[in-house]
Design a protein that fits this description.
Chain lengths: 346, 346
DNA sequence: GTGAAAGCGCTAACAA
DNA sequence: TTGTTAGCGCTTTCAC
């Protein structure tokens, strides 16, 4: 890599000189403002091309206060995040949307509360216009921190507090869970267990609620808490089987846990779906299509949810900046629908 | 989220005023320069605390030309990236190192060559001090693009061209592959096949070379190309089995492909490892520990490799900035060792 | 050791 | 329509 880095980048001043106009005019052309006579504009554009001019973002940000950058903050006290493709998909959706609107994605990974101070400092430092926060656990202080830093925020997943102003995007966990159980019921299953997620995440709570909506008088013993890992799912399944030998259906709160459950079932010699039908949640394709048998599950469009988070935040920013492109839709949380995907396990 | 965003952030001027010093002195304290008398420094620090001052990065960058930010560019024409936890782990390593050195991680995802122009513009825009590039395929123009933008770069994985100046970090693919085959040989296996990766990636090429190093006169038919997906692995395995019914060992160029191979083996009623021993590559824990049986594989420390990429880049930047902290180690590509991890499949 | 002053490259009033 | 002129908030000589 040769040190072409030493060729000093041209400034607006340079291109103005070359085009024989003032810096202001050059700036107008570069920023696409109306009202520059065509021939002049053309000369400026040519100069830009010839010199390979690219605006210095720092200088621009200094005056406009717009950074055209959004932070994605991920609380990741556990390593779940890295075993679950969930996040990657969501980020991709976010990246898509941000890119389309010419915004940058700054990734802030935290490994624990120790890092929060750093994140707070960063957000307060005015590097970004807004933040997208994934706060996996109920007691998380990240959102509060962003608020304190005065950075507009959208949360991934329903937060556990209710506050009219908080913007978030989540899927219809409760409705999806209901569909899962209905599906099992429709298959004629009568003894249905639920492998729940840790109840410190609203998604887990909502899915459990959905289960209870449909099976209000299920034994409490039919509900076992997993931990969103395959192991957890496997253990929970074993417990369920020990307690209810006649179990004929299971709704697991995640595909990953369902994959663990499938494994236990196989080890115990239960056929799926003949003996026990299994429904997961998420539709993580790399998991659900690859279990044996492939998993029937509740699909949430993860990538789209990421996209929506970004879009919502950007709209919020536009609104704050006053106006922006036709403020039609209201600024409020988004809950996306889920969908039953039938494969072989139920 | 209340609009505390309207509270204007304090500037250096503000804290200088409050501390009763000049802006220059305040700046010195904030940046930890020597040579400010203790009592003054103390007053400044107090003002910083009281006002919650955080330096405006844009303003600072404008004069120092340091952005303290590094771009991570991922070429992702296929969606492999999202089914493979590989990347996430690498990013984590990068993030760790960057964070420790107070640098920011800007994520640039590309979905195809169309996006390259945007990335080029971004890099040239001087938003970042350097770039970490993951260029999965041989014909990728991303590295060239970064070079043109004059942005110091470190590549993830050995690039396919040789050029003394190019910095990269990779694991010892060839050596690891050799170890894999030796392990199989040590188990008494004599008919060993190789499920290779697409040969447009140097990692695949190197692993195949390693295989050939140890089994120089293996039938060409013993080498089948997969595509780094479970399906590809499954198909390749089927092909191998059809051609060589007496096959007793397989080295797959990735854990993900190995998992597919395992599936085929199970379907065909071959016991693993009794009938056919299988060795993977990568040691993606969420895959290797969860196959049935758990996978013996070649481990590369993915997270550490990410960390090394970041460290190498940062050192390169320091060097360019002249001096920096004790330039001991030379600036050259890094190849990390691999390690055999024995589980149950071989 | 500390302060005054000169910009970094850009945008946005305001004049012309 | 175009140019002139102030800064945005910070670092950094250069005097004192």
């Amino acid at each position: 890599m040769s040190d072409s880095s030493y060729a000093p980048r041209p400034t607006l001043e340079d291109i103005a000189a070359r085009a024989g106009v003032s810096r202001a005019t050059a700036s107008r052309v570069v920023n696409g403002s109306e009202g520059v006579r065509a021939p002049l504009a053309e000369r400026v554009r040519q100069a830009v091309d010839e010199l390979g001019y690219v605006p210095n973002q720092a200088a621009r940000a200094l005056v406009t206060r717009r950074k055209d950058a959004v932070a994605v903050v991920v609380a990741e006290p556990e390593t779940r995040f890295f075993s679950d493709p969930f996040f990657a998909q969501q980020v991709r959706g976010i990246s898509r949307e941000l890119t389309a609107r010419d915004n940058q994605l700054v990734l802030l990974l935290t490994e624990g509360a120790d890092d929060y101070e750093r994140v707070g400092r960063y957000l307060a430092g005015g590097h970004v216009d807004g933040a997208l926060i994934f706060s996996l656990h109920a007691d998380d202080t990240l959102p509060a921190l962003a608020e304190r830093a005065g950075v507009p925020t959208v949360i991934g997943g329903r937060p556990d507090w209710s506050d009219g102003d908080t913007l978030y995007v989540d899927c219809d966990n409760r409705g999806g869970a209901r569909d899962a159980v209905h599906h099992l019921l429709g298959l004629g299953r009568r003894r249905i267990g639920h492998i729940a997620g840790r109840q410190d995440q609203t998604a887990s709570v909502d899915r459990l609620d959905g289960f209870r909506d449909v099976a209000p008088d299920a034994d409490p013993g039919l509900i076992v808490e997993g931990d969103f890992t395959p192991d957890g799912g496997a253990r929970a399944m074993a417990e369920l089987l020990d307690r209810y030998p006649d179990l004929d259906g299971v709704f697991a709160a995640s595909d990953v846990m369902a994959s663990g459950a499938l494994r236990t079932l196989r080890q115990r010699g239960r056929r799926v779906p003949e003996d026990v039908a299994v429904v997961g949640f998420d539709d993580i394709v790399s998991v659900a299509e690859w279990t044996d048998p492939p998993l029937t599950t509740i699909r949430q469009d993860i990538e789209e949810m990421g996209q929506m988070m970004a879009r919502l935040l950007l709209r919020r920013l536009d609104a704050a900046a006053g106006g922006g492109p036709a403020d039609d839709a209201p600024l409020k949380p988004i809950v996306t629908p889920t969908q039953v995907v039938v494969r072989a396990s139920a």
